[in-house]
Amino acid sequence: MSKDKIIGINPVLEALKAGRAVQRLLIADQRKQDREIQAILRLARECGTEVRFVGRDALNREVPGANHQGIIALAASKEYATLDDILKAPGEKGQAPLYLVLDGVEDPRNLGAILRTADAAGVHGVMIPDRRAAGLTETVAKTAAGAIEHVPVVKVVNVVQTLEILKKSGVWVTGAEADSDQVYWDVDFTQPTAVVLGGEDRGVRRLVRERCDFLVSLPLMGRISSLNVSVAAGILLYEALRQRSRKSS
Questions:
Q1: Residues 149 and 124 both lie in one domain
Q2: Residue 89 maps to which CATH number?
Q3: Residues 53 and 122 in one domain
Q4: What does R_g of the chain's alpha carbons equal in angstroms?
Q5: Euclidean distance between CA atoms 198 and 204, whole angstroms
């Protein structure tokens, strides 16, 4: 993360739980007795993290305009994972791979919401382009409500080449495409899977779309022609979770 600041109760709590190198906590004087803050302080003591109690004005100056909830953590930069890292993860857990590839999601709030859902659905890694896409910013971390500490995110130079690597490792690639005749629930998500979602405006790019093994649509019964990308991610990932849960039961 570029600014090394984590804002809000849940993001700070999850960062400490995950063992993130937090150098200092800034906490509003008025909140020091709150139950949520006390839980954070206990973890901070265990980690040897410096704690300073300050006025809200100091917090507001630190992160202007942000809803900091009375707490900011100054932390070591959040590191991106590598492709090798996430390719190994499913085998270490004894699970079929489930990845998410985002082809140009630019809104940091959408990325944060997607990471939160990815963590809940058991995704082993999220891949994002290194250009023309949101990265791991403070806004993403706040929206993700701590999930950024648990979901490995990989920056890739070329999405098309990354899909080829995934396919060579035995992963089937399913892309979301509004015009597809195949509905998303007809795809077998119990097999090693990478779900591909496009950016907010352009969707999945043509070259990326051509590398997909399956293209699926999400039925729309109303007058709106598309869904928010974070909503689409939730629908597809939870269909994968549903299928996998039924298979393992």
A1: yes
A2: 3.40.1280.10
A3: no
A4: 19
A5: 4
Largest CA distance in the chain: 58
Mind listing the pLDDT tens digit for each residue in 58-67? 999 999 988 9
Are the beta carbons of 99 and 197 closer than 8 angstroms? no
| CATH number of the domain bearing residue 70 | 3.30.1330.30
Q: Which residues contact 29 (CB under 8 A, 6 or more apart)?
A: 53, 54, 55
Query: b or e along 45-69 (b: 16 or more beta carbons within 10 Å of the residue's beta carbon)?
Result: eeeebeeeeeeeeebeebbeebebb
pTM, two decimal places = 0.85
CA separation for the pair 46, 101 (Å, rounded): 36
β-pair type (50-54, 22-28)? parallel
Residues 102, 219, single domain; the answer is: yes
> Does residue 3 carry a pLDDT above 70?
no
